Structures are given as structure tokens and as C-alpha cells.
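Handout, page 2. Input:
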Amino acid sequence: MNTHTCTGGFLRRHLLALVVTMGIGVGSVGQAGVTTAQELLQNGSFTNELQGWKKSPKFGTWSPLLQNGDNWVLQLHPPTGGYRGVVAYQNLNVSGVGGQTFTCSLAVQKQYGPEGKSVAVHLDYVTTGGQQVRTNLLRIDNADLEYAFTNCTATLTLADNAAKVVRLGVFKEGDGNFSVDDVSL
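Output:
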């Protein structure tokens, strides 16, 4: 199951609650399960530039970071015309994720975006059988975005045979110019 919402740019970007929720049973038989939240990403606000992130090797020396006032944001407008693919990603190593629910959130600003879905977040995991699977965690309709930062949130429950989450990537999958900040998982 995968659901997502985007809410207007009136929200302050630095007040976004972005967490991955993992249900963890505690205690003895008959005791209710307890849900805890734990942030799995490093530097989702890009305060330390790309620390913890990797950019697509297709970009060479081009940096996907753009200074926005006192903050850095991830720009989804590579110099390669018509580029489609991952812009930045983090490798992860989170096991015990079968059947767990993850919540991802990020702030997206549209500078230009025609009809379509140009910004996406994908989560990669490995199954108990060793197969790597890419899931579409969030794919945002350009019409839902504003020219101010818009908070977008998605929730995804992984399959029971998911063994380990290995990567989260921010992708450009359509035309337009967008900035991303405050990525959280």
C-alpha cells in the first residue's frame, strides 16, 4: 500500500516532521506492540551540503546543490538536457523491514513544471530471496506543487519478504525545474 499527499507552501520547511515509522513489538506475550520513529537519512536539509548523499555519476563535476538564501537545496535541473534518472541518493543498511511502514517527506519547490509527474522518490530494498526491488515511494504531480516550497509526504508498507532497505533516491522523471529540501525517511 502506498499513499501520498502534498500540502501548500505556507508550511515552514524547517518544521516538517519527516520520519520512518517501524513497528517494534516489546515485552512478553500479550503485551501491545509499540511503534517507534527513527530518522534513517543523514543531512536531509543539505545543511552540510552533500554530506551523506551521492550524486549521479553522470553529472561529472556539476553539483546538484543550489544556495537558497542561507540554505542549500537539491536542484533537479541537471545541465544535461532531457535528463531522467536519479539526481541524488543515500545508501542505507536497515534490516528487519518486512511488513514495516515507512513515511517519507520532503519539501519541493516548482520553478517551472508542465503537466506530468517530474519529481519522484524511490526506495530500494532486498528481499529475503536476495532480489533487489525498487519501489515508487513518492511520485508528485506537478499540478500539486507551488512556486513556494510544498510539503509532500508518502507512506509505504513494504512486502513481508522485504529483508533490508538499501537506498533512497531523489529522481527527476519529467520536464521542469524543481528544488528539493528537508528530505526525511
